[in-house]
Amino acid sequence: MKKTILLTIALITFSLLSVDAKKKEKKQEYKFKDLVSLPVTSVKNQQASGTCWCFSGLSFIEAELLRTGKGEHDLSEMFLVKKSYNVKAVDYVRYHTQLAFSQGGESGDVMEMISRYGLMPEEFFSGLNYGTKRHQHGEVEAVLKGMLDAVAENHNRKLSTAWQSAFDNVLNAYFGKDVKTFTYKGKEYTPISLRDELGIIASDYVEIGSFSHHPFYTLCDFEVPDNWIHSKIYNLPLDKFMELMDNCLNNGYSLLWGSDVSEKGFKSRKGIAILPAKEDTEMSDSEIGKWEKLSKKEKKSGLYIKEQKVTQESRQKGFDNYQTQDDHGMHMIGISKDQFGKKYYKIKNSWGEYGKYKGYFYASEAFVKAKTMTYMVHKDALSKELKAKLGIK
Fold first, then answer.
1. Phi and psi, residue 324, nearest 5°
2. Does residue 267 contact residue 29 with C-beta atoms inside 8 Å?
């Protein structure tokens, strides 16, 4: 009987502790309030393909159509992806294979493909012609690249006139044949005429970066391997780079955002991206003072560790040391704050309705300052003064 009573007491105590732990765990969660959250279309899923550049790019374009009163559209990523493989192939051979050929790309690729080939609704071109219901480009990339490497070896000492046709046939086998005309919303279109009807003009969009190895307020190169198309960016000092980002969002313009997500502070399932500082033991006393201090409430919550204080110099060092790379293209759609008043940016991803916020996550201001590679926006979001300074008409 005594043992039974003790066991009962132990179970009750354990139960109460468990409930208390759960309450504490529930309490120790980030809580975000959206200050700006711009209209967007549904979250898509790039699945097992390295085509974030196109998924984020078309999410951005679909938001632009909402912003300009053109209605809601679901545009085909694989239409542009297929075209990009074709254009990359010609350049890859022309450069004797000394150029990137992969699934990856940059923001500029989206606008270049739209400029050349137009837009296609998803319902007319899914690009799933290879026996699965998921985008899987591992085999596609390997087959295409293997073929191009064989062509570039140039065994006949002169390239054949057949290789491009053969390459097109492989693309058709994996993605499906091109759709030349289609009836959409009661009207017949070509991809070019749909683009023109929707009013998407590639030259209306500018890409912004912040790198000290180029002069500020100039149009400069963006030196990353996936920039096979050699897109140029407008280079701003870090404070102006961030100021423009905020102005865009506050005035209804979303951003096509490229960032490094291979960081210990990027927690996709939890829907949070922060920029942890190094452990104090790794730094000298003079260095410790460079990192932000936490409030008592932040310390008590158990949520926070110190975040880095980002400067133009630290940002450049990360880029030069390959610590900040062009991992992932996403869609920045808003500004938020947490329960302690800290600023975050609201990001729409392309991994399906994944993680705590069903396809969205929140990136701290420090993370965005340090890990943003570039962002693209409509040029109308820039002030007249900044346009003039950059030479944008």
1. -120, 115
2. no
Spatial CB neighbours of 226, under 8 Å, sequence gap ≥ 6: 53, 100, 102, 104, 105, 106, 326
329: Cβ contacts below 8 Å, ≥ 6 apart: 52, 53, 55, 56, 57, 106, 107, 256, 257, 258, 350
What is the CA angle 356-358-359, rounded to 5? 110
Q: Is the pLDDT of residue 87 over 90?
A: yes
Q: Could you tell me where the beta strands, DSSP code E, fall in 136-176? A: none
Residue % of the chain over a pLDDT of 70 = 87
Choice between 276 and 8, residue whose per-residue pLDDT is larger: 276
Q: Which residue type is seen at 26? A: K
Separation between Cα atoms, residue 348 and residue 264, nearest integer Å: 20
Enumerate domains of the chain plus CATH numbers.
Answer: 29-213+220-275+310-390 (3.90.70.10)
**What residue has token string 């409430």?**
297
Residue 47's pLDDT band (cuts 50, 70, 90): very high
Helices (H), 251-364: 285-288, 296-301, 312-320
The Cα 77–Cα 80 span in angstroms is: 6
- DSSP state string for 198-265: HT--GGGEEEEE--TTS-TTEEEE---TT-TT--EEEE--HHHHHHHHHHHHHTT--EEEEE---STT
